[in-house]
Specification:
Elements (H helix, E strand, L loop, with lengths): L3 E7 L12 E7 L5 H14 L9 E4 H8 L6 H13 L1 E7 L5 E7 L3 E5 L2 E5 L2 H8 L9 H4 L5 H11 L10 E2 H8 L10 H19 L2 E10 L2 E11 L11 H5 L2 H8 L4 H11 L1 H12 L7 H11 L14 H43 L3 H14 L3 H10 L7 H12 L1
Antiparallel strand pairs: 1-2, 3-7, 4-5, 6-7, 8-10, 9-10
Helix pairs in contact: 1-2, 1-3, 1-6, 6-8, 10-11, 10-12, 11-12, 12-13, 14-17
Length: 415
């Protein structure tokens, strides 16, 4: 059964500024969660975050969820198994409450989850929702970054270190605590620090430093010759700051985004709706809501219109349309069908591109460090354009500019 602990870090020196909290209390999601389950947990929390304390349940399109997590959207059996595992996972915290008294608590990560009509509905217990919504207690993980992890241990270490990025250090963990956070407690093999360091610590640290926006360094404390405690020094990774770059700035300048904000929709929810449904669909629902005049809750009504695809019912027309109007309507319908087909084609191409990049990531992960270095050197030697070489140096095997060349290279390597 997975566990989660909460640790308190006392800040010292310059960190005692008024703008910095006096402590960081973090829930560490630990235990034997798979990589998929960890990614799923983070995406569900991100989707629900804005309404964690105001809604008893939350929902997300199942295929959208699968796409963000990064697995086959038609594999509902895997999704069901992952949701069941999260509902069976226990989170535990032990921390100082707002009143200064020690507070212990336990809750399942999800109080329930269900799949119906292509929608995933789920909920958190009220007390856990309160903890997860408090940035002093829990830090959201950037799903654009977690998508690049290929191992559960690497993502688990990133999560547990990212909680403490503001303080610069995780603080000392007993090795038994660290084994629980990595999900290898109870394994006689990892009782040996030699094995733990070689198979868990070093590979996980390497993956965090290579694929995330932070850089971590392990430090060890000994009793005699035996290592008894571990902590991680944490700093930002400026070379990989690109992982924090998304299309948010461009999206926030769009007319649809600003119309949503004007309606009182939160920044996070506005970006989520546009990402899931597209500008045209959201603009259509905004127009629909505008025709209804004053409503009790414009955000709530808009949310329902988006979820259930409300459509304006055309008024009855007594005079039949002219032949010219019919031709115009047919032309518009044909154009709309063509636009929809083109949009579907672009979506399919993007999905195929993501699958190909995941395929490349799997091949790269299977290579040893010497082979990986040789692969990069060989590929770089085949690039003639300076811009292409620079983009590959920055983004590695996920360089969109070099996508076709990367896929062709690995196709050749396979055969």
């Amino acid at each position: 059964m997975a566990q989660a602990t909460v640790e308190k870090q006392q800040l010292t020196g310059a960190l005692k500024r008024e703008t910095v909290k006096k402590h960081v209390a973090a829930i560490h999601i630990s235990g034997k969660l798979s990589l998929l389950q960890r990614k799923l947990s983070n995406v569900l929390l991100l989707n629900a975050y804005d309404t964690l304390q105001t809604s008893q349940s939350h929902a997300i399109d199942a295929k959208t969820l699968a796409m963000i997590v990064g697995y086959n959207s038609n594999d509902m059996d895997t999704l069901r198994a992952a949701l069941k595992s999260l509902a069976e996972t226990v989170a535990e915290w032990d921390m100082l409450g707002e009143d200064g008294k020690q507070e212990w608590g336990v809750s399942s990560l999800l109080s329930y989850a269900k799949l119906k009509g292509g929608v995933c509905e789920y909920a958190y217990s009220p007390v856990l929702a309160q903890k997860l919504h408090d940035p002093k207690v829990y830090a959201l993980i950037n799903v654009n970054i977690q998508r690049n992890f290929s191992s559960g241990h690497g993502l688990a270490l990133y999560e547990n270190c990212y909680r403490f990025v503001r303080t610069g250090s995780t603080g000392w963990w007993a090795l038994d605590t660290f084994r629980k956070l990595m999900g290898v407690e109870g394994s006689s093999y990892y009782e040996s620090f030699k094995h733990l360091n070689a198979k868990i610590i070093k590979p996980a640290v390497a993956e965090v430093n290579k694929t995330s926006d932070i850089s971590i360094t392990p430090e060890f404390r000994k009793k005699g010759r035996a290592v008894t405690e571990i902590r991680f020094a944490i700093k930002e990774n400026p070379q990989l700051a690109m992982f924090n770059i998304d299309d948010s700035d461009g999206l926030r300048s769009s007319a649809v985004y600003n119309a949503l904000i004007a309606q009182g929709v939160s920044d996070r929810l506005a970006r989520q709706w546009i990402a899931e449904h597209g500008d045209e669909y959201i603009a259509d629902k905004l127009k629909y809501v505008a025709t209804k005049g004053r409503v009790k809750s414009s955000v709530g009504y808009l949310s329902a219109a988006i979820k259930d695809d409300y459509k304006t019912v055309p008024e009855a027309v007594e005079i039949p349309p002219s032949p010219e109007a019919k031709k115009l309507a047919e032309a518009r319908r044909a154009q709309m069908a063509a636009d929809e087909a083109a949009q579907d084609e672009r979506a399919a191409e993007r999905a195929k591109m993501r699958e190909k990049f995941e395929w490349v990531a799997g091949l790269v992960a299977a290579r040893n460090p010497t082979q990986r270095d040789a692969d990069k050197r060989l590929f770089l030697s085949e690039l003639k354009d300076d811009l292409e070489r620079e983009d590959f140096m920055r983004h590695g095997w996920r360089s969109a500019l070099n996508a076709r060349a990367i896929f062709a290279f690995w196709d050749g390597m396979q055969g």
